[in-house]
Amino acid sequence: MSKKPSLFSELNRRNVFRVALTYAVVAWLLVEIAGVVLPMLGAPEWLITTLVVLLAIGFALSMFISWSFEMTPEGLKRTEELSPDQVLPYWSRRKFATFIIGTAVIAFGLSAYQLLMPKQPATYSRNEPGSVLVQPTPGVTSETMSDRQSTERILRDLHAQTSAAVAAKDLDKLLSFYSEDAVVFPPNAPAARTKDAIRNLWKALLASVDSISSKTTKVEVAKSGEMAYVTGTYELTLKNSTGNPVQDHGKNLVIWEKQPDGHWKCRADMWNTDLPVSEPAPAEKK
């Protein structure tokens, strides 16, 4: 009775080890190529993750095929149908080693390239809903980009707090966001250039406002990091001179300035309506 071959010898006879090594090296090369090429094309990072998952599935499939089938001059046949002594055309050990070493060297070179080459930090523009990937400005470090993003978040939060104070008709809270030298430019009225003038302006406005909502559309921080502007839109309902509710919507522009103590204060505030100017009533004929 012939001795049953061991699992190791059977795996070696069916070339499972060769297929596994070849697949692993080629898969490594494909991942490294994707890691270099896809970022240049602006492709999302999940594509590389998807490629790795597909390659892992392909590895299991290739092991199954290698165990179950053999490529012969007559085509693909099941391993059980072949004689153990049958000679199949394979690459020589020298050719196989050359292929494996050459592929591994290329993959290693691409891996070293990704590790050694400096990467430019990318950031996401917060100017519009649905952020888009943009390249950093030359000369701007990653620390600067991080600081600007942090400042944008602070200013968006301050803008939201200001709108909430208006909606709650909290006059003192609202005035606390203005700097000592702030200027307010309301529509159809003179500019308010003093604390008392700003207080009187908002006191009259809050008394007439029934409801208000606003939305930030853009935050732009100066290169110095000491000043920024925020634009947005608003919708409100207020009472006119006769006490009737009037709907209004428009846009606003707020200039924020960083104070010596590190806090941000509103330096200038301006808003105006999007509604068209009503035509004056025709003069009566005498």
Attribute tags:
286 residues, alpha+beta, Nuclear Transport Factor 2, Chain: A, 2 domains, 5-stranded mixed β-sheet, two-stranded antiparallel sheet, 24% strand
Q: What is the CATH topology classification name of the largest domain?
A: Nuclear Transport Factor 2, Chain: A
Count of DSSP-assigned helices: 7
How helical, in percent, are the residues?
40-55%
Question: In CATH terms, what is the architecture of the largest domain?
Answer: Roll
User: Which CATH C-level class of the largest domain is it?
Assistant: Alpha Beta
Q: Structural class, from helix and strand content?
A: alpha+beta
Which parts are unreliable, with pLDDT below 50 for 5 consecutive residues or more? 120-143
The first-to-last residue Cα distance is: 131 Å
Secondary-structure element order, N to C: HHHEEHEEHHEHEEEE
> How big is the Rg?
35 Å
Overall geometry? elongated
How many domains? The number is 2
On the 0 to 100 scale, the average pLDDT is: 78
What portion of the residues fall into strands of 2 or more residues?
A: 15-25%
Total E-strand runs: 9
- Sheet having the most strands: 5 strands, mixed
Strand arrangement across the biggest beta sheet: 5-9-8-7-6
